[in-house]
Sequence to fold (838 residues):
Amino acid sequence: MEEKTAVIKMRNITKSFGSVLANDKVWLDIYKGEILALLGENGSGKTTLMNMLSGIYYPDAGQIFMGENEVSIRSPKDAYDLGIGMIHQHFKLVDVLTAAENIILGMSGKGLLDMSAVNEKIRSICSLYGFDVDPEQKIYDMSVSQKQTVEIIKVLYRGADILILDEPTAVLTPQETDKLFAILRNMRDDGKAVIIITHKLHEVEELSDRVAILQRGRFVGDTLTKDTNAAEMTNMMVGHPVVLNIERPEPENVKERLRVENLTIRDIDGVKKLDDVSFSVGSGEILGIAGISGCGQKELLEAIAGLQPAESGSIFYIDTKTGEKEPLIGKKPREISAMGVALSFVPEDRLGMGLVANMDLTDNMMLRSFRRGKSVFADRKSPRELARRVVTELSVNTPSVDTPVRKLSGGNVQKILVGREISSAPTVLMTAYAVRGLDINSSYTIYDLINQQKQKGVAVIFVGEDLDVLVELCDRILILCGGKVSGIVDGRKTDKREIGRMMTSLGGESSEQQA
Amino acid sequence: MAGILSLVQAAIVFGTVILFGAIGEILTEKSGSLNLGVPGIMYIGGIAGLAGAYLYESSVSAPEPLLCFLIALFCTLIASCLAGLLYSFLTISLRANQNVTGLTLTIFGSGIANLFGGAMNKMAGGVGQISVSTTSAAYRTTLPFFRGISVLSSLGVLVYVAVILAIVMTWFLNRTRAGLNLRAVGENPATADAAGIKVTKLKYIATCTGAAITGLGGLYYVLDYIKGTWANDGGIEKLGWLAVALVIFARWKPVHAIWGSYLFGVLFWLYFYIPGLDRSSQELFKMLPYIVTIAVLVISSMRRSRENRPPAHLGLPYFREER
Fold:
């Protein structure tokens, strides 16, 4: 490291939002020809720090040096001019425009557009780094990974040689991740500086040359990746030792609780979202559901909860004591939830479903319970109690239970949603993306909660994105591919490569069919 | 045959008024502002042009036609641009609700125009009707090379300006860098902002320019359609709403607005050329443009093509620091 000189030095960078100190005197060096992983929990200030480098925020104090000169980055344009480009977690693309139009958006140049020259330049960038994108394709026709590629090309097109990627793998399959990593290594070998923000340790180990760790807005230290290990990094990140294994208690006394047979669902456009899906879930086990996003996971859960009409097929709720089968299709959502079927769905924007952003914690708890009261007046006392309990048990960071949910950070919002669903004492708990965007500590709290429910004999359906977690947490994993069941595998005997293959092609290779 | 020719002619004259309104509104909406003040802006543009022409014509003994033309044009552009500026300030800078602001602007525009129109009619004395004959004649001059063609023989110069403007607008939106940036602002201002586009500035420019073009519709109505007079009969307002409907009909594409506006004109005047209609069936016929708009809305939403939808951020305020 001694022979290299840092291309960017950040010194004593401080930034606060209101009373919250997001970055506190952070030092960071960035080198060319190196992949730097910026590691830290949620709210540790990784994204804030990088946003200051890319011109979204301006630091309250501190300096940024480019080579020997101090620079001031006040807008994304300033950042581009210095060769710094950032790929945000939420893509900043205009859906109805083509890839090429998105790439040149906002750039200065001749007033009249020459799209064929632009397309030509994009194709040459593509062939240089191994991208596979059609410049004339519209964004709304693209998969998530294609969109990400467009974002990366956008940054390269503007001549950036310092690339920042904010949690780039959150939405990718393992295969797509491998492809992305290969491209990033290409860029490093081309002499560019690559910074990747992540909280996935195995990615740090696999990809990065150096790792810098932030903890609660403070810079803890940086080291060469090869000189450290996962346990040490976690300790630096959290501040105290953490056990990194997800518990998986043996399922006890499993009896069939829910059975789905030949379920087919079409959306409004007549496109098949689910095609002949059959499976069953037992009490006391966790059934994981894996699949590329938009492969019918949402429709499946909604059909069980009674929110989505089915074209054909049946769903049965089975009373484990009497063995009686009761069909769920045709029942109202309210009747289904009264039977103990709970659904917590965390959509990409977190607030889209399940919670009302402008209402406070208590009122959001009431959304589940307001029908239970006997008189015409709503009972506000018990939801308030519940809100308090969720806040203390899941250590939700909120000023009070009267704070509107919209003011809380994403992780805290999720804890409230999941906490509320679990508190309704369900017999079937369906949870989708429960740990989406959560840091290690909060994620583990949620896994613990789910495991507790499993041990209580609840049938849990866990839709997840992180295949590592699915493999470690679930007893069985159902893989959806284009709305069809690609296979159901035993969580103890599979690995994420196999699941990844089955996500992209029906049946994968060695699928182990279970009824 | 003569009936059809005169129907086409009436339709073109009628269509030109709403074509200006629609082109201006398309430009405005492409930037994400849903300006429902179109009728109000047409009123303001119309009365400003009329007042300018009236003051000039009544102050000199022999008014110069070209000067008449330019003064009226200038007054209209400035006044309607100011109306657009008022709307922009309220909705973009102060983030007021766009629908409420637009509707208020319509009420304000019709009020102020009728106030000044009535006052000028009173000032004119005599039969109580002002007339700016020189200006009106200037606006109704037919371009020399169209004089021989029967349908086009009596059309004023602004008819052609409207068509050219629609074509230029299409070219601007699709082929220029500024047009691309503008479309991005209307679709997704946060993305545009991150790409270094000055969102607020672009929205202001588009809304004010759009209002100026919309105002030309009012000018054409006053100086050509009703031949340089003023009537407090709400005629402009009716056409203003049709211009808003035409934007939807044309699916935010200015070239489609050209034939759409003439079709609206044909549909609107159809009752006049169908013999034997009593008054109530006439009213039924006058509904046709609106029914066609609804039909187009139904069909285009059923097809669900992404290209035919309004700009995604239409009607919403943009605030950078909002999460």
